[in-house]
Write a structure and sequence with these properties.
alpha+beta, Arc Repressor Mutant, subunit A, 3'-5'-RNA exonuclease activity, metal-binding, PNPase_PH_RNA-bd_sf, EC 2.7.7.8
Length: 768
């Protein structure tokens, strides 16, 4: 029934299997990719015709993780997979970015790529498997895809590159790098690194490319067995005459427009050029007019690229390595915990840093179960930043991707939770944009965290590089403008410290770049990053040593794990009382790490004293402040050290005789007490009379010491003449009336002087 075709490859210590023909047979192309015990199904469908008037390529990629793949039921109210999570959005972009440039120009049929994780082994990350499955499905679908591509993840530990490491291995190493590539060239790079050198990063990319070739060969083998007939698509360019006419009509106007250094003025001039071009074909059909606009844009690209490649002249007059003017400010927002305004040319970002406690951490419900993230970076790109009218609301895929790139740049230099136990949120609002707002976010985010007092290992700067490639001739551009990004062949972003690279991202718009181009781009980016970092540090050279007055303070103490339940109390009663009484927040983990937080230092100290009182043991001879919690006939019970109770006997309240404890104290009264004795059962005997109740200082004990008791005399041999106590004993006549008629004995005295056992707390009663 099934015509199943498979190929297998031993790769990175596991078997990679690609299968087609069994599942999703109505799709144009469907591949089931298995690596280890992680399984991803990718199905590709393509529209057979183009919508009228469409002039762009509508490729849509959806990546989805099924909770059932890991044997889990989704959390939340609905208990099913819903909107895309941040990770799903990022992996969707990871698939989209390397495959989009491999479709021919002029192909506008809508294509839908859906990758679903069906099984997850907890070790093999499904993103690489999904990229491979998508490449294979596109390759066998028959659509004009100039692939295939392969993909690989690379780690770096102890000077060695690791192929497709687990997330645990990535965490132990210094690199998490994902590369997608054709057999000939690299198409896409995404990474996070712990200050690696340019040589180490380039080596990792080349290592990944070599391993990706093995996957490319496996996909080609599958296509030879199962590929559908290629589509017949007419992509012939019949616009040569139109291009010549437009070049004569508006060529000089385009050249003049791109000499305007101001973005707004340049945009207005170009809009006039396009309107003029459209008017030249006013008598033609709307479709022809649309084509005229596209040809005009191609003409713009040709003029700009030629000027850069042949003459070294950039749009704004800079050299290929020159960085735009930079201005940085910190602390300009009065109520935020940290703030920075970073401006580079016509790109500007307001970055704010907010510090929170553990309960502000982001909870992530994924295939690996619940996890918590204490560092967040959110990026916003409102339409006014580019002088346009547009949608303003929830972040789109672009905002999520740019924010994650900046997150990867800053994450490696953050302090550990032990050294800085705060939840950190960086917010970047782009207020102007003309090239690489994500790298402006890196720079502004670094400054705002330093302004907030976050002790970064080192400040981080970032730069965006561009490329103009024509045949064997190429020029690498530093700090690209938006137009240079749109009209160029590469968007290559690099961020790092003075010690090395922390992130690197590359997107290619052509069929890939070589090692030579990437090496030059990295070297040029290093010089640019150093210049930007120097300009940043003019605003703030190092992290502030004091937190903002509006930021919470967090104090961490470590307790014995056996005392955790004492602090929490039955049903959380004790910890709730601590929080309600002191106003401070208290968090305790399973290892006995207690974090006390508040913006008021006095509240922290009160909660800390309370907690230490619960976990510490009372010390004989030491004076404590406590509160009277119960008064009995023979004294008063005082709570001290937060969770300890002790007895102040009536004889220890004052140096003179006290008739009743209520003559001296009342419930709820705060008193100073000295610990006199702690018996083997833990009962504590306290004294008030030897402590100054005003100051808490110790007083001289003026009461004469008690005379030691004389030892009891030897009562001799009590046997022999003693009468037996058994049934033969002659008791004599009983008193008249029995016990009731005899001597009035009165109430039985308690073992404690003056006490009544019926009124004593249980913990003071004798255990026998």
């Amino acid at each position: 029934m099934f015509d199943v075709k498979t190929v297998s490859l031993e790769w990175g210590g596991k078997t990679l299997t690609l299968e087609t023909g069994r599942i999703a047979r109505q799709a144009d192309g469907a591949v089931l990719a298995t690596y280890g015990e992680t399984v991803v199904l990718c199905a590709v469908t393509a529209a057979k015709s183009v919508k009228e008037g469409q002039d762009f390529f509508p490729l849509t990629v959806h990546y989805q993780e099924k909770f059932s793949a890991a044997g889990r039921i989704p959390g939340g109210f609905f208990k099913r997979e819903r909107g895309a999570t941040e990770k799903e959005t990022l992996v969707s972009r990871l698939i989209d970015r390397p495959v989009r440039p491999l479709f021919p120009e002029g192909f506008y049929n809508e294509i839908n790529v859906i990758a679903q994780v069906l099984s997850y082994d907890g070790e093999t990350e499904p993103d690489i498997v999904a990229m491979i499955a998508a490449s294979a499905a596109l390759t066998i679908s028959g659509v004009p895809f100039m692939g295939p591509i392969g993909a690989a993840r690379v780690g770096f530990k102890d000077g060695e590159y690791q192929l497709n490491p687990s997330m645990a291995q990535v965490a132990e190493g210094r690199l998490d790098l994902v590369v997608a590539a054709t057999g000939n060239a690299v198409m896409m790079v995404e990474s996070e690194a712990k200050e690696l050198s340019e040589e180490e990063m380039l080596g990792a990319v080349m290592f990944a490319h070599a391993e990706s070739r093995k996957v490319v060969n496996a996909i080609i083998e599958l296509a030879e067995k199962a590929a559908k007939e290629p589509w017949e698509v007419d992509l012939s360019d019949n616009t040569a005459d139109m291009k010549a006419k437009l070049k004569k009509l508006v060529g000089k106007d385009i050249t003049a427009a791109y000499k305007l250094t101001d973005k707004s003025a340049r945009s207005n001039a170009l809009n006039e050029v396009r309107a003029k071009a459209k008017a030249a074909f006013a008598d033609e059909t709307p479709q022809t007019q649309m084509v005229a606009i596209k040809v005009t844009k191609k003409l713009e690209a040709e003029i700009v690229r030629t000027a850069i490649l042949k003459d070294g002249k950039r749009i704004d007059g800079r050299t290929t390595t020159q960085i735009r003017p930079i201005e940085s400010m910190v602390g300009f927002l009065p109520r935020t915990h940290g703030s920075a305004l970073f401006t580079r040319g016509e790109t500007q970002s307001i970055c704010t840093t907010t510090l929170g406690t553990k309960d502000a951490e982001q909870m992530i419900d994924g295939l690996d179960g619940l996890s918590y993230q204490n560092f967040m970076l959110h990026y916003n790109f409102p339409p006014y930043s580019v002088g346009e009218v547009g949608r303003f609301g929830a972040p789109g895929r672009r905002e999520v991707g740019h924010g994650k790139l900046a997150w990867r740049a800053l994450h490696p230099v953050l302090p550990s939770k032990e050294d800085f136990p705060y939840t950190i949120r960086v917010l970047s609002d782009i207020t102007e944009s003309n090239g690489s707002s994500s790298m402006a976010t890196v720079c502004g985010g670094s400054l705002s965290m330093m302004d907030a007092g976050v002790p970064l290992a080192r400040p981080v700067s970032g730069i965006a590089m561009g490329l103009i490639l024509e045949g064997d001739d190429f020029t690498v551009l530093s700090d690209i403008l938006g137009d240079e990004d749109h009209l160029g062949d590469m968007d290559f972003k690099v961020a790092g410290t003075s010690e090395g690279i922390t992130t690197m991202q590359m997107d290619i718009k052509v069929a890939g770049i070589t090692q030579e181009i990437m090496g030059q781009a990295l070297a040029q980016a290093k010089e640019g990053r150093a210049h930007i970092l120097g300009e940043m540090l003019k605003a703030l050279g190092e992290a502030r040593t004091e937190l903002s007055a509006h930021a919470p303070r967090i104090e961490t103490i470590s307790i014995d794990k056996s005392k955790i339940r004492d602090i929490i109390g039955t049903g959380g009663k004790v910890i709730r009382e601590i929080v309600a009484t002191t106003g401070a927040k208290v968090d305790i983990d399973d290892e006995g790490i207690v974090k006390i937080s508040s913006s008021d230092v006095a509240q922290i100290e009160a909660a800390k004293a309370w907690i230490l009182g619960i976990v510490e043991e009372a010390e004989v001879g030491k004076i404590y402040k406590g509160k009277v919690v119960n008064i009995v006939d023979f004294g008063a019970f005082v709570n001290f050290m937060g969770g300890k109770d002790g007895l102040v006997h009536v004889s220890e309240m004052k140096n003179e005789r006290v008739e009743k404890p209520t003559d001296v104290v009342k419930e709820g009264q705060e008193v100073f007490v000295k610990v006199l004795e702690i018996d083997p059962r833990g009962k504590v005997r306290l004294s008030m009379r030897v402590v100054d109740q005003e100051t808490g200082g110790e007083l001289e004990d003026t009461r004469p010491p008690r005379e030691p008791r004389e030892p009891r005399a030897d009562r001799g041999d009590r046997g022999g003449d003693r009468r037996p106590r058994g049934g033969d004993r002659d008791r004599g006549p009983r008193r008249e009336g029995g016990r009731d008629g005899g001597r009035d004995r009165g109430p039985r005295r308690d073992r404690e002087e003056g006490g009544n056992p019926d009124h004593m707390p249980a913990f003071l009663k004798s255990e026998d």
